[in-house]
Fold:
Amino acid sequence: MSAAKKAAVVGGGVIGGGWAARFLLNGWDVAVFDPDPDAEHKVKEVLANARRALPLLYDKALPSEGRLGFHSELASAVGGAVWIQESVPERLDLKHKVYSDITGYAGPDALICSSTSGLKPSELAAQGARVIVAHPFNPVYLLPLVELVGEAGDCAHAAETLRAVGMYPLTVQKEIAAHIADRLLEAVWRESLWLVKDGIATTEEIDEAIRMGFGLRWAQMGLFETYRIAGGEAGMKHFMAQFGPALQWPWTKLMDVPELSDELIDLIVSQSDAQSGHLSIRELERLRDDNLVGIMRALKASGSGAGGTINAHEASLPDR
Amino acid sequence: MSAAKKAAVVGGGVIGGGWAARFLLNGWDVAVFDPDPDAEHKVKEVLANARRALPLLYDKALPSEGRLGFHSELASAVGGAVWIQESVPERLDLKHKVYSDITGYAGPDALICSSTSGLKPSELAAQGARVIVAHPFNPVYLLPLVELVGEAGDCAHAAETLRAVGMYPLTVQKEIAAHIADRLLEAVWRESLWLVKDGIATTEEIDEAIRMGFGLRWAQMGLFETYRIAGGEAGMKHFMAQFGPALQWPWTKLMDVPELSDELIDLIVSQSDAQSGHLSIRELERLRDDNLVGIMRALKASGSGAGGTINAHEASLPDR
Structure:
């Protein structure tokens, strides 16, 4: 009876598990390959979270779940799959080996996609494999964004599939290390390390500075649209004139990179324990997912951002 | 009959207007001083937005509005005020002049607070005025965060008042240019300018990369708590070990500052027009406010972040 499409998930960590859940809950069959004996357990934990949270985004039922299989051989995982998602560790030599193996077993029309957060398609394809970047964001089963980088036709094809499983594909115009979002995240991460190291703020205080202020703005509009409003009737040009000169001020420490010494790591770990240690990772995941569901459902009313993506996906689901 | 406390708002732009609305809608009398003949109009526009949005956060009625006055003399605006909020342009000489004038008219127990987004209290107080930083975030009538920097007793006193009007005071441990949040924003702004300049992404694509992904995470948890979850059961130490080495990668352009040439400004302005030009600033403000209300109401369920601040404020309001 199954006319379901098949996705292969190569690498079954938090990201691979998130991909598996996203496809499975949208009616695809999913085959997971990971030599780690603990992979099945990890994927099933992610899947339990996803089964709880993802359906809450929609006012219609999602498709019937596809079939989930765990494979000890790459060949059987990849065979017959039209989407092959690689989420192995960020080592180029390892990824090259994986693509070479996949290419031997994959059908000619299968899309091979990498979850890499930093590597460029030209680096990934250096040994001839046909692969594009499809970089998702954790939790993959809830957050819409996937950055696509690579050959235009493959990206367009991938975008169509991603929209069909409720995601938001963003095709990056030129390849660049770390694509778009992770470049911004990296900038914030470095600056935050300086703030902790210099004793300006703890990890908890930095988190509050984000989620009590601009984090709320960025869940629904981005940087530029927010600043356009700040410019008022005079618009973006006025804002640039006001804020631009600050670039010449010594406001950032990012001209340099803080050394990740054992002392700094221990400081961050102990501050993070003090901030969040009263909750287990599982409890934190559920809190995060409940909040994400609430926020994204709230955005359905206006159709802004993730709300628009959910509305479009919902409209494509059958009434029953 | 009025036992209402009085706040003076010195400088009536978008930020001053937001402060006026925050105090007024929480039952304070507010006196605005701004020599700009257009200030009354601007403040009343902000107030109209605030009257529409702020009450929607709560399931109880806010206090009866205080009285709003516009003053052509600083003396009458400041006299009798227990909170004096300065929001004039970011020029140190101008601010020194304003503090000197305020000090001549203010009562001995009045708190003088600056909305400065970048200057340090030691710079502001260089000529002997007693002033602390109370840096809010636009829209001031909805976003909870206020960064406090300055003398510990004054900051503690200010924090009490800010909590009473539904805000979230974050006292910064050491003074530093741009406090905390604006240092992070500045880092993202610079990196974004590079992405636009280098043709990697448009303003709209950068905004989507934010609001479809990590913006949703940051509305409810910050940077560190999110990464703690990403580390999984192995925790923050594991995450640091995984992600830390990326700091040595050439992932950011922030080692340098892009020149804000006319070409770059025009590019950003035209991309911003293409992205958001179909909506007026007033329409964008209402869309933003509707989304913020929806998001913050969603967070009331878990009590995370802004949701917790609203719940605490609501509990302090009388039933009627």
